[in-house]
Amino acid sequence: TGTPVTVLGLGLMGRALAGAFLSAGHPTTVWNRTMAKADALVARGALLAESPAAAIAASPLVVVCVSDYDAAADVLQGPLDGRVVVNLTSGTPSRARTLAEEVARSGGGYLDGGILAVPEAVGTSGAVLAYSGPRPLYDAHESTLGSLGTGLHLGDEPGLSATHEMATLVLMWGMLDGFLNGAAILGTAGVSATAYLPIAQTAIDTVAGWLPGYARQVDSGSYPADDGTIDTHLAAMAHVVEESESLGVNAELPRLLRALAERAATAGHGASGFVALVEQFREP
Ligand code: NDP
Hints:
By secondary structure, this protein is of the alpha/beta class. It has 2 domains: 5-156, Rossmann fold (3-Layer(aba) Sandwich); 188-281, N-(1-d-carboxylethyl)-l-norvaline Dehydrogenase, domain 2 (Orthogonal Bundle), CATH 1.10.1040. It is built from 11 helices and 8 strands. It has an 8-stranded mixed beta sheet with strand order 3-2-1-4-5-6-7-8, with helices on both faces. It starts with a strand and ends with a helix. Bound molecules: NADPH dihydro-nicotinamide-adenine-dinucleotide phosphate. Keywords: Oxidoreductase. Belongs to the HIBADH-related family. Residues 5-150 form the 6-phosphogluconate dehydrogenase NADP-binding domain.
């Protein structure tokens, strides 16, 4: 049998996590505020604890997945002697650092983590879980945590996982809003979103292919206009804003994109490549 694990919080995600540990053969103790949510797991062999403290006492590794950090801090009240807490609740980097300190004061070790997957994918290699916190703690539990999916250790600083989550959410929302905005523009021409798909997907694949070169420019701080200048983009942005306004669709996103490029041009980057915009995102 594998290392015993405890899972605190049996919402949609917590139940998937506990289920994956059971499938991998780990003796699994569970606790949830609403006890009935443990029924199916208990039927599969999980042990139901009567309190968070009893659940924490049962295993060296304690996985927490509740709604927010206030709830996580609540369930982790009390002694944590020698326990390693892996908090998979979503939150901010500053809350991750605070909770790491609270856990240390209670005698526990702390890893923060983000789940880049839906509950159905948990337990498969397609589920990526990104962890941050002391490397030795991660190494000690890497194989047990491997039952949940593909694990990545991002670094020792506990807030790193939440910082990556923030960055990735902004990336995904930006792309998704761009798709929805494009679908609204095409809707005025009677084109369905489904009909737009082949071109939209190709555009996202194309942009994904540019990322390695963009990343090098961001990291080096030099933005040669290899493909086009910010001034050239600005002219196209002005057309999209004007046309959106005359079509009567929302023009906020095109206006924001134009405003950022205008500021970059004013800052002297009109003849630079698109990556010069990164400087606009570094300012408040
Ligand atoms: P659910 O709403 O399904 O579950 C929330 C869980 O938190 C329940 O177990 C609930 O208990 C518990 N809870 C809430 N408040 C308290 C409290 N004050 N004290 C004790 N327990 C509490 O959410 P999910 O399981 O979907 O999400 C949990 C975390 O996982 C979130 O941070 C979410 O962002 C993250 N996540 C979820 C993903 C998903 O696809 N679902 C993907 C990636 C991350 P009770 O049952 O009693 O209400």
